[in-house]
Design brief:
Length: 153
């Protein structure tokens, strides 16, 4: 069997389970201990994610932190920027929330306009990290699909 043949098989394979879910939604489900193959739509996934988070917060169970070193460094930079701006950030806040708070502060008060370039840099860096994470997960999903097909599962 040639490499081209395997590539053609993969192009017909598509997604096995978790059908139309985005990679980010699949990651969130997995991080919360929910099998994405049991979910049929984005709307259902969002409800399950919200319920799981609500249950964990109610039971004071910490949410899982799957953070790469690049994202950890980015969070540190964002917290430093927030500190310079006088914004209080909790230690468990994800990067998306931190950037949202900083953005609101910059857009609401002109005296913080000097921080726009640094904020833009952090936002771009966060987008690049997300793109790279999604590419890795998509590649792993594709590889898993090919393995399933080759094994007849």
């Amino acid at each position: 069997m040639s490499v081209n043949f395997i590539g053609q098989i993969g192009s017909y394979g598509g997604g096995f389970g978790g059908g139309g879910l985005s990679e980010e939604t699949k990651r969130k489900l997995i991080a919360l201990g929910i099998d994405p193959r049991t979910v049929t739509s984005e709307a259902q996934a969002k409800v399950l994610i919200e319920n799981a988070i609500r249950v964990r917060k109610a039971s004071n169970t910490p949410l899982p932190q799957n953070i790469c070193s690049g994202e950890r460094e980015l969070i540190s930079k964002a917290k430093n920027l927030a500190l310079k701006m006088g914004i209080t950030i909790t230690s468990s806040m994800p990067i998306d929330e931190i950037l949202k708070i900083i953005s609101e502060k910059i857009n609401s008060d002109k005296k913080f306009s000097e921080f726009k370039p640094e904020f833009a840099s952090l936002t771009e860096e966060a987008q690049n990290i997300k793109k790279n994470e999604n590419a890795v997960y998509a590649s792993m999903n594709y590889s898993a699909s090919l393995n399933k097909m080759m094994l007849g599962l």
